[in-house]
Design goal:
By secondary structure, the chain is mainly α. The chain contains 21 helices and no strands. The protein is globular, with a radius of gyration of 22 Å.
Length: 449
């Protein structure tokens, strides 16, 4: 038996407070006008820090996170019992390292905050405004999604020829989380982690691949944004629709801007967690029924409670977006959802083992091939339909970067266009769960499982 590891902090409330403090410091420094900090964030993405800094708490044995316990939480557990007790119940009785403080935080983030964030982020989908963007914008967005869905399996096939050991075992499971992130965002990534039961070690490596490869591509898009007029002139793209779009967005923002009061915020919370409750009820009913009557459906994750919870809340969010509930976006529904997402990101980072990145450097090649498929398809279609660089760049980043970075790329063209990035990114959140799940099914078959 290995020597027990001594941790500095084991109280869940303390750990949660530390995570919140870390996020606060990151966002405060990110908005700072200090020249050194501005230069620092030009090279180091804030999102990467939200993963990386919490990971140091686990890597240096400051906060415990038991991986077997995580595997238990990924399955069907009794939410009414103590998380720690259930982890101990299935663990080796001789293991004195069992401590679920990290797992408790992740359980709350993934089962409560994740579904609530999905509801709030999909709540703002405005199908009329998406249609008004024109067919080329939607074509480029759809092309981006397709590039991610087929790019993953192609990268898996190519690497299986170059170096089969790199993609052996459960690597395909980890790739489903990258698909979730690159089509939707952090919420969809966490959803795929649970649906396909990705181990903590594989997930740690995939987070690094996801963030680093995605940010390299974003740097390329920002460079193209700076050269957009020249590129559009050479390709003969019609940019008049973009100018009209600027005026439309600016008018919408003026007409709908409102400072939220306490009632607005409480109603946002009610919608988010009310829908989350419905999601859990549906999951607790449908998953056991399917498991009892069609056990073979387990290979499609249809017996997973987590799968049905995520699908239910995403569907409810889309339904809400067609009603007056969408007006809560004007008082910050998506901002509240983003807060939940970043808390989830920090909780995920808490069990990220930095050393796992160095163990499998070839996975970055897999990610690079994947991104090249996506980028090649985007550039080819953009040239064929003569789409402006703006549509190509924002359509791509709305997939790969999500709501956190799509506005950054959009605003590189014009500040008033930042909401367009959010709009398409929200569409990515809506499609992320479904498309990433489909990509996961392809990856599973390509891997030979």
């Amino acid at each position: 038996m290995s020597e027990p590891i001594t941790y500095s902090i084991t109280n869940s409330a303390t750990v949660f407070g530390i995570l919140a403090f870390i996020l606060g410091v990151i966002f405060y420094t990110y908005r700072s006008q200090n020249a050194y900090l501005k230069r620092f964030y030009q090279f180091v993405p804030a999102l990467l820090l939200c993963y990386f800094i919490p990971s140091l708490l686990h890597t240096f044995h400051i906060v415990p996170y038991n991986y077997p316990c995580l595997d238990v939480l990924s399955g069907a557990i009794d939410a009414g019992a103590s998380v720690l007790a259930q982890c101990q119940a299935v663990a080796d009785p001789s293991d004195t390292n069992i401590d679920a403080s990290g797992s408790q935080i992740y359980y709350i983030a993934s089962r409560f905050l994740l579904p609530a964030s999905l509801v709030l982020l999909t709540l703002s989908v405005d199908f009329k405004r998406i249609k008004a963007l024109g067919p080329k914008a939607l074509i480029m967005f759809g092309t981006g999604t397709l590039g991610i869905v087929i790019g993953g399996p192609l990268a898996l096939l190519i690497m299986s020829v170059i170096n089969p050991e790199v993609v052996a075992g459960d690597v395909w499971r980890g790739m489903t989380t990258v698909a979730g992130s690159w089509i939707g965002g952090g919420a969809n990534q966490a959803a795929m982690k649970e649906v396909y039961e990705v181990s903590g070690k594989v997930f740690s490596s995939m987070i690094a691949v996801d963030v680093i490869i995605a940010n390299i591509w974003m740097a390329v898009l920002l460079y193209m944004a700076a050269k957009s007029k020249t590129i559009d002139a050479k390709t003969g793209a019609d940019t008049s629709a973009i100018e009209d779009l600027k005026e439309t967005v600016e008018k919408f923002n003026r007409d709908h801007a409102k400072n939220p009061d306490l009632t607005d915020l409480m109603l946002i919370i009610a919608i988010a967690f009310g829908a989350t409750a419905v999601g859990h009820v549906v999951a607790d009913t449908v998953a056991p029924y399917i498991a009892a009557n069609w056990p073979a459906a387990a290979q499609y994750s249809l017996t997973s409670k987590f799968f049905w919870m995520i699908v239910t809340v995403t569907t409810l969010g889309l339904i809400f977006s067609t009603t007056r509930l969408r007006e809560f976006e004007a008082v910050g529904a998506s901002k509240v959802g983003s807060v939940f997402i970043y808390l989830l990101v920090a909780a995920i980072g808490l069990h990220m083992d930095v050393s796992a990145i160095l163990e499998r450097p070839w996975l970055f090649v897999v990610g690079a091939i994947w991104m090249l498929v996506h980028a090649g398809l985007m550039l080819t279609v953009a040239k064929l339909i003569k789409a402006p660089v703006f549509y190509m760049a924002v359509g791509s980043q709305a997939n790969v970067g999500g709501a956190a970075s799509a506005p950054v790329v959009a605003s590189a063209f014009h500040p008033s266009l930042a909401p367009v990035g959010v709009l398409l990114a929200v569409l990515g959140y809506a499609l992320g769960t479904y498309a990433a799940y489909f990509c996961g099914q392809i990856l599973m078959r390509v891997s030979g499982v």
